[in-house]
Amino acid sequence: MSENLDEPKDDLEKDFNEAGSEEHSDYKPADTKDANVKHQLSGMYQNWFLDYASYVILERAVPHILDGLKPVQRRILHSMRRMEDGRYNKVANIVGHTMQFHPHGDASIGDALVQLGQKDLLIDCQGNWGNILTGDSAAAPRYIEARLSKFALDVVFNPKTTEWKLSYDGRNREPVTLPVKFPLLLVQGVEGIAVGLSSKILPHNFNELCDAAVRYLHHEEFQLYPDFQTGGSIDVSKYNDGERGGAVRIRARIEKIDNKTLAIREIPYGKTVASVCDSIVKASEKGKIKVKKVEDLTSGNVEILVHLAPGVSSDKTIDALYAFTDCEVSISPNCCVIDGQKPHFLTVSDVLRKSVDNTLALLRRELQIRRGEIMESLHFASLEKVFIEERIYKDREFEQAPNMDAACEHIDLRLTPYYPTFVREVTKDDILRLMEIKMARILKFNSDKAEEAIARMKADIEEIDRHLDNIVEYTVDWFRMLQNKYGKNFPRRTELRNFDTIDSAKVVEANEKLYINREEGFIGTSLKKDEFLANCSNLDDVIIFFRDGRYLVTPVADKKFVGKNILYANVFKKNDKRTIYNLCYRDGKEGTTYIKRFAVTSVVRDREYDVTQGTPDSRITYFTANPNGEAEIIKVTLKPNPRLRKIIFEEDFSKIGIKGRQAIGNILTRNPVHKISLKQRGGSTLGGRQVWFDSDVLRLNYDGRGDYLGEFQSDELILVVLNNGDFYTTNFDVNNHYEDNIRIIEKFSPDKVWTAVLYDADQQNYPYIKRFCFEPFTRKQNYLGENKNNRLILLTDEYYPRLEVVFGGHDSFREPLVVEADEFIAVKGFKAKGKRLTTFTVETINELEPTRQPELPDDNAGNTPDEEPENLDPDRDKSEGDIIDEITGQMKLF
């Protein structure tokens, strides 16, 4: 008998199917109390998961907005405050004490305590607490000690303004939130992963938070940006005020010791020295950068030395370190906090505002509590003064009172005339307290001192009232006090900068060699026995042109079949507008020959394109790739035809406009072509490269950002003069890195005369003047001399500079000396010592307006005709008849 597959196989499956049926009324959600009702597992999981998620979010992972603390951190600080006696306590003891409030074990408490201690704000540490730079862990809890910092004692605690709740076992009280009077959440930062959400708030600078709080209280705009203990630099252009969806990029600080050695002095936030070193080694093993050795010399400060392989550019390696290693990281902040027993996603500015508002409320509450306490003291002091001065305790009615009630009634009767002078009504508790005054105190009572005490208390109340009436300024003073007291310990460590985007394909090390097998149509890095094309990296693409006019761009691979009849192949540079392809092609088998120029800036990988019109049997008859837009002159030889008077003519590519790659091109000839050959190479038709220097990122660019340096031809250089007297020259490559102490950066002119005035440390600091021309050195040279104590006074490129020497000291009576620099000293080398200006005491040396300007050169003077360009025509010594004879002997070029 065959089985009916539509029927359940057993009772369990039947029950399961019935449980899923909407018509089955016996199944209800899991929260039912009827023991006879079957429960759905989905309902149980829904309730249990929600309970668990809520607990993790509220009680473990996400900080509260009022005090900026997670529950474990709050319990640690509360325990330490209970243990506080001014001395250090063993961390093991603190952990054990905290377990009265935190039900999740000693490991979580110990880790949280170490993290708090490493932030160097709330906890004063003693012993080996680990190292955030190296990632070394702290010593065992029994070996290290801690106590609350002075800042924590000032800012975090006040039992009178603290809201309390019972601990998890009901044996103790713990704070709901601590009365923190500072935006602690923003200064420390936090990271937590809950169920279904996470929180990541970056740390900010202490002083900047104080300033922002003051600006907010004064209703002024403010901005806050992260600051990290590890230093480095940060790009906050997409910070988005710390709200989710934003991002920041953080970079290590890399210094160039020399052309073969780089030093990493600061590392990105969240990374350690070991992780940075490992990332550099891995990038080197993958061939993305060429590094000879990575040396970790970190002790108190970060110092990682990166030794480069011979022939490797240090500038390019710096970019590669940022592109391929942990020297640059991207962090996405997510400002999630608990507010009103619910998680909220806020901005950093919102958190600061709420924290400052909470601080103001706490300060007002403290003032009100303090005022109430002083009022009570004033009230009793007034009662005590009347009670003793009027000797009420000596009254016969008082001494002979039959009971306590009668004695109290008598005292109340005697105090009645003085009621208007008391701050509140007199209660029976007040009278009972008066009756508890000891005779020794009565005998020592001094009326004058009592009046002084009362006057002080009234003055204190008046001061508190002023503070309450001006609570905003009182809060401002509170933040200023904290800044003055603790701000010097928290200078900004992370530099705010705008980063330029590094194209990884441009900075990756060309560690591979690209080969081609034209016969079989293969290209790749493993074809070592075939034709070498170029050096490349595994991130590069290759552009390939075929003789039939097709071309494509494909990634570099070990071995890849691309097709036969390859005409040209090379590494492809995306968005390269200066590489111009010059070509001629025949449209169809016997069609017109066209000439065109175009650039290939961006294409879809592995998609075939066509530079011809797509007619079958089309063919490229001439092709060159020109990296700087060069335009050559070609010689076109037509096939012999009796109707043609001229079978040889020339064409200049510089007359052909650069158009898109899909353009048809200009008609070169409608007649059949025998061959096309190069007659003369040409120059660039794109002109020089216009270069700007962006002082924000200390980099060159071609996009018009920063200071314009000029138009550069391929062999021209840039002069860089530093504040310490060093100078050097570079090319105008946008990958160059420059220091931040640049005095002058401009287009280098070898004939430009400079005038420098300096104090010579070897000659009793007398002022010297020298005139010289900078020379093209790639290594740093110094024009101030070998003594490092020489000091520059003035540097000018004025052709005829005039200087005013103002005397001071004992020689201040002398008239200022005016010096014509070109008459005072001749132009010499930059290493020359120069000539002493004066032996008198000099107050200042000023540059005056020149009285003359150099004559402009005559454009026609000394001009000589340009040299005749090299003629590359292979048929230049042949007559037209000889060429025709050759053609008739071989009519076919391809």
Summed over residues and divided by their number, the pLDDT gives a mean of: 86
Report the portion of residues in β strands. 25-35%
In angstroms, what is the radius of gyration? Answer: 43 Å
The CATH architecture classification of the domain at 511-680 is 6 Propeller
Q: CATH superfamily name of the domain at 511-680?
A: DNA gyrase/topoisomerase IV, subunit A, C-terminal
Roughly what percent helix? 25-40%
Major β-sheet, in short? Answer: 5 strands, mixed
Q: Write down the CATH topology of the domain at 511-680.
A: Neuraminidase
Q: Which descriptor suits the 3D outline? A: elongated
CATH class of the domain at 511-680, please? Mainly Beta
Alpha-carbon distance between the termini?
A: 79 Å
Number of helices: 20
Number of strands: 48
Characterise the protein shown here:
By secondary structure, the protein is of the alpha+beta class. Among the domains are: 248-331, 2-Layer Sandwich (Gyrase A, domain 2); 511-680, DNA gyrase/topoisomerase IV, subunit A, C-terminal (Neuraminidase, 6 Propeller), CATH 2.120.10.90; 749-848, no CATH class. It is built from 20 helices and 48 strands. Strands 25, 26, 28, 31 and 32 form a five-stranded mixed sheet that branches. Strand 25 and strand 26 form a beta hairpin. Helix 3 (71-83) crosses helix 4 (91-98), helix 4 (91-98) packs across helix 5 and helix 11 (348-389) packs across helix 17 (471-486). The longest helix is centred in the middle third of the chain and has 42 residues, at 348-389.
